[in-house]
């Protein structure tokens, strides 16, 4: 059961939104998902409270450095994916969560390029590799991308990160009202009302493509999907 964490030392990069999109998409596909809410603002915990019980999805709140490992250990047999939402910081909980992750997703705003916050996480990953011989696969996901952000600009960002050996997801997360709306109304993109939320179909397509790309990054393993067991194969990116 892969542990996927969302980290960027800068606040507001889109970690919580991306974590919720991934978790709800995976749960909607039939995977059992636990979101570990390590964001001190507890947005996902609040989202869960207004959403009510959701099939295949559990949210763990009030997590500490000491309790994180216990949650992962105790729930590993009941969960297909752990999704960890982290604070916009580089503190002990962020470092511990990254050390326990199978893949670290680093959301970077396509328009603002949170270079410093992302670089702090990349430096931390490099230090873990150097000092502890712990190579944790990681990828940047561009977020809040609008039509104002040109393909040329995105390619330039990808080029810069690729030069540092950083994998960048092909699917950027767009700036979408629907993604904000989830936190207002609760529920998932599947339960939002298309008559009330503009471009909901585009938002759903975007979240599905993002989740699909993340799943492909996971090492090959046996995952439970609905009632059947299937082998999900994927490639490992660093
Ligand atoms: N793809 C998106 N489309 C529309 N709004 C977004 C998107 N991603 C993030 N936002 C908005 O940007 C703000 C910050 O996003 P979010 O809370 O996901 O960032 P964060 O990195 O988790 O922040 P923090 O470091 O404070 O925890 C929120 O108001 C959120 O609704
Ligand atoms: Mg957050």
Automatic annotation (TrEMBL):
Gene3D superfamilies: P-loop containing nucleotide triphosphate hydrolases. PANTHER family: COBQ_COBB_MIND_PARA NUCLEOTIDE BINDING DOMAIN-CONTAINING PROTEIN, P-LOOP CONTAINING NUCLEOSIDE TRIPHOSPHATE HYDROLASE. This is ParA chromosome partitioning protein. InterPro entries: CobQ/CobB/MinD/ParA_Nub-bd_dom, DNA_Partitioning_ATPase, P-loop_NTPase. It comes from the Bacteria. Residues 4-186 form the CobQ/CobB/MinD/ParA nucleotide binding domain. SUPFAM superfamilies: P-loop containing nucleoside triphosphate hydrolases. Signal peptide: none annotated. It comes from Pseudorhizobium banfieldiae.
């Amino acid at each position: 059961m892969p542990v996927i964490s969302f980290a960027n030392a800068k606040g507001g990069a889109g970690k919580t939104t991306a974590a919720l999109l991934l978790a709800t998409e995976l749960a909607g596909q039939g995977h059992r998902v636990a979101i570990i809410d390590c964001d001190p603002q507890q947005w996902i915990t609040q989202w869960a409270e207004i959403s009510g019980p959701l099939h295949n999805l559990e949210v763990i709140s009030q997590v500490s450095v000491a309790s994180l490992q216990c949650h992962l250990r105790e729930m590993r047999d009941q969960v297909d994916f752990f999704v960890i939402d982290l604070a916009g910081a580089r503190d002990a909980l962020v470092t511990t969560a990254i050390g326990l992750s199978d893949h670290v997703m680093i959301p970077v705003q396509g328009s603002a390029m949170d270079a410093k916050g992302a670089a702090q996480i990349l430096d931390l990953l490099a230090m873990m590799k150097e000092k502890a011989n712990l190579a944790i696969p990681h990828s940047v996901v561009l977020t809040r991308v609008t039509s104002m952000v040109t393909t040329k600009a995105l390619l330039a960002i990808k080029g810069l990160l690729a030069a540092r050996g950083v994998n960048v997801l092909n699917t950027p997360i767009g700036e979408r009202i629907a993604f904000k709306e989830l936190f207002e109304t609760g529920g998932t993109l599947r339960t939002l009302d298309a008559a009330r939320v503009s471009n909901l179909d585009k938002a759903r397509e975007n979240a599905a493509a993002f989740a699909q790309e993340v799943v492909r990054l996971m090492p090959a393993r046996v995952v439970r999907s609905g009632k059947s067991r299937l082998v999900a194969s994927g490639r490992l990116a660093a």
